[in-house]
Design brief:
The chain has 178 residues and is an all-alpha fold. 69% of the residues lie in helices and 0% in strands. The model has no long low-confidence stretch (mean pLDDT 89).
């Protein structure tokens, strides 16, 4: 029996645009001299506004696709060590979210945990989230933050600051060739 949240039924979205945003956040984290740049935030806001509703939906779907890909990689890595991704990864990331109240308000943490768990179970996070209505403005930063936390977790596991980004770009390059 197929699930209504089967990843094969989910829109892929703008994975390239989402990856660009996530990677730029990661690079800002890794640059110890970086400060919160209001100009950069203004440009990101301007970029998001220029997308229009369909472009923004594609970016949201692309971010969910990244979350799914990252959790799939983590699930395979955990299974290789006889561990469960939900038991191993989700509590760590949720704990980190709780320590970041400006990005993750308490009321959005269950939604972000649900995205992680749905992906960990092999379900589409965007289709899982769609069951509960449209995305809210309050969920935008936490969604991006969740993807950044996953990518950074993968980078730490692989001891390579660019591994998560390279993994996706390699997959996209392979898909382009097919």
């Amino acid at each position: 029996m197929s699930s209504p949240c089967d990843p094969s039924e989910a829109p892929v979205g703008d994975v390239g645009g989402a990856l660009l945003m996530i990677d730029s956040r990661l690079q800002a984290i890794y640059d110890e001299k970086a400060e919160v740049d209001p100009e950069y935030q203004r440009l990101l806001d301007q970029f998001a506004a220029s997308l229009g509703p369909s472009g923004l939906d594609a970016l949201l779907d692309g971010t969910c696709t990244l979350i799914y890909l990252y959790m799939k990689w983590l699930r395979l890595a955990c299974e290789a060590h006889d561990q469960d991704v939900i038991e191993t990864v989700v509590p760590t990331l949720v704990g980190t979210m709780r320590k970041m109240p400006q990005t993750f308000r308490p009321e959005v943490i269950p939604i972000m945990a649900g995205l992680l768990i749905s992906s960990g179970l092999g379900l589409s996070p965007s289709l899982w989230r769609a069951q509960y209505g449209r995305w809210t403005d309050a969920e935008m930063n936490p969604l991006e933050g969740t993807a950044v936390l996953l990518a950074e977790h993968i980078n730490r596991m692989s001891n390579d600051r660019d591994f998560a980004t390279r993994m996706v770009t390699d997959a996209l390059s392979g898909a382009d060739k097919e």
